[in-house]
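Entry 12.
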Amino acid sequence: MEIAFHLGVHLTDQDQLIRCLMRNRAVLGQQGIAVPGASSYRAQLRQLGQEMEGRPTDATTQEALLDGLIEADDVQRVVFSSEGLLAQHRWAINNNRFYPRAADRVRQLAHLFPAADVRVYLAIRDPASFLPALVADKRSGGLDQALKGSDPMGLRWSEMIARIRAEAPHVPLTIWRDEDTALLWPEILRTVSGHSPDIELTGWFAWYWDLMSPQSHEALRRWFQTNPSPDDLHRRKVLSAMLDKFALPEKIDTDAALPGWDEAYTDVLSELYDQDVDLIAAMEGVTLLEP
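Predicted 3D structure (tokens):
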């Protein structure tokens, strides 16, 4: 059995992935893919992961946990999604690190399913936009609580991913840039769920609703329904053209900044992020989804 964990990160998904997969439960179920309701496991998995650390687990433990979450008997893959499994918003950054407990959390989650092939999926985001968004989110507790004195220039996603790989080397990671999600969305859904390429999930267009006017969104939906893409590359090209034509500028351009930041500062943050992504792409056990 395969266990797929989509773990955020914060402010990259807003549960859109799990909502789309749950909408397609029936067709996914026909392929042996189970998508439990998020409310049935989010708090439970976090608590059990901490409670079972250091205690033995086996196939029986795994079966008992899954029996309470899925009903079908012929399940080959289970998809869980929760950004909160890595940390609460206010603990996304500490001691100049993104998600200081991320490696512990992934190890704990894998420990709950010792007889399964556990895989982790997550988006990362340019610190130039991620940090202002995190500070602006009320759940983070404001600037001081969100950053805790950390130097934005020293934060690296590659450092977090390296920690996860060191603590859970048997867990493969699939990463994508949040900035690429608009072009990769159908591929992200397929990669996380594991469904076959010949299936098009109902409602995948909903992700684009907030980026354009209702009329433009309807045009996008009609185009793809009447002109199915022969492959991922073709779909990306069409999406790119439609986003160039229809996307509202105020929805695409994020100019938020923190006190003391200027354009030059944010440009450096973005340059460091690009370099960081190159490091991630070269890591063993890590797959980087790219347009």
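Annotation: The radius of gyration is 19 Å. Residues 2-203+270-289 form a domain with the Rossmann fold fold (CATH 3.40.50).
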